[in-house]
Amino acid sequence: MSLTADPPACTVPAAGGTSTHKLVNGGADKLIFKIKSSNNNEYRITPVFGFIDPSGTKDINITRTAGAPKEDKLVIHFANAPADATDAQAAFAAVTPAGTVTIPMSATA
Predict the structure, then answer these.
(1) What is the rounded distance in angstroms from the CA atom of residue 40 to the CA atom of residue 99?
(2) What is the pLDDT of residues 11-53, one digit of tens each?
């Protein structure tokens, strides 16, 4: 089971902007994920919960609203998805995360 992010870091203007990243499932099992941010006031992440098929990818969008330049991070918690799961948010509550991926975020002036 492995999950990677491409690109592995996010740089956006402090005045606001969007960055798209691809989560890549390098394993043979379907994964479930939840994304947490160190700054929910200035960043919006979509989707927050989701599934990634075996050897598949999922695009995530990181949108920053205007604010002071600073360093933040996203932490993506992931685990093998339950076989019968259809609602990622509900199913994630029932699993124990097996790993994390961290995306450093930098807002520049």
Answers:
(1) 22
(2) 999 999 999 999 999 999 999 999 999 999 999 999 999 999 9
Contact indicator for 44, 31 with CB cutoff of 8 Å: no
CA distance 54 to 32: 11
- Taking the C-alpha atoms of residue 71 and residue 53, their distance in angstroms, rounded to an integer, is 31
Could you tell me if 1 and 29 are in contact, meaning their C-beta atoms sit under 8 angstroms apart? yes
Report how far residue 22's alpha carbon sits from residue 82's, in angstroms, rounded to the nearest whole number: 22
**Reported pTM:** 0.94
Q: Is 75 exposed, middle or buried (0-12, 13-18, 19+ CB in 10 A)?
A: middle
